[in-house]
Specification:
mainly beta; 2 domains; six-stranded mixed β-barrel; 17 strands
Length: 205
């Protein structure tokens, strides 16, 4: 017991903690669960729930998030975009179908933020902050435009850099990279939607 919170080191204690508190932190040598939240098992075996959970690590107090969350980009008029949490990616990215360059140095781009049950897009204007050269493991190097805007995840908001890329065929329209996560969030890969309630599916008669 550390300051009223439960602290576990051994793997069996982590498994037990899952049953008792509903959430487990991954990726730190020693961790402390400061709060629990109820959850339910989803269709692919993971757990999901709503409510903040604090995790203590060597970097201090972190908010626990799932492998997938709903985020909003209020300056771009986007709400509840489904995002994949990807610690392997440095910069966050969003699905963009078209990019137009304006005379004043700004750009205009079409964000694809939903594809099912129907494709929904929104045109956004922003000022690029930089470009980056990216070489994926399966292809040639190409240039990406990077913009900066405010991102909201649950009750937490921050300014993040976002690459404009094509994510056609991907499950999530956006991914959140490690520069937006470092020092703020810890990721529980076995759960999703810990800070944001997933949309309810409509029942058809």
């Amino acid at each position: 017991m550390v300051g009223g919170a439960l602290c576990y080191d051994a793997p069996w204690q982590r498994r037990k903690a899952w049953g008792e508190l509903g959430r487990v932190s991954r990726g730190v040598d020693r961790w402390v669960v400061l709060g629990g939240v109820g959850g339910q098992v989803d269709g692919d075996g993971g757990k999901r729930g709503v409510g903040p959970v604090d995790v203590m690590s060597s970097m201090g107090k972190l908010k626990l998030i799932g492998r997938r969350e709903r985020i909003s980009l209020p300056e771009w008029g986007l709400k509840r975009v489904r995002a994949k949490i990807d610690t392997g990616a440095r910069t966050s990215a969003i699905d963009v179908a078209q990019i137009e360059h304006l005379d004043d140095g700004r750009i205009r781009f079409e964000v694809v933020y939903r594809v099912k049950p129907k494709r929904v897009t929104r045109w956004v204007e922003a000022m690029p902050v930089r470009t980056s050269m990216v070489k994926p493991s399966h292809g040639k190097a190409h240039e990406r435009i990077v913009c900066r805007t405010k991102m909201c995840m649950g009750a937490y908001e921050q300014d993040v850099e976002i690459s404009l890329i094509c994510r056609k065929g991907m499950l999530c329209r956006m991914l959140i990279g490690r520069t937006a996560l470092a020092g703020r969030f810890a990721v529980d890969a076995s759960s999703k939607y810990l800070l944001s309630r997933p949309e309810k599916k409509r029942l058809t008669q």
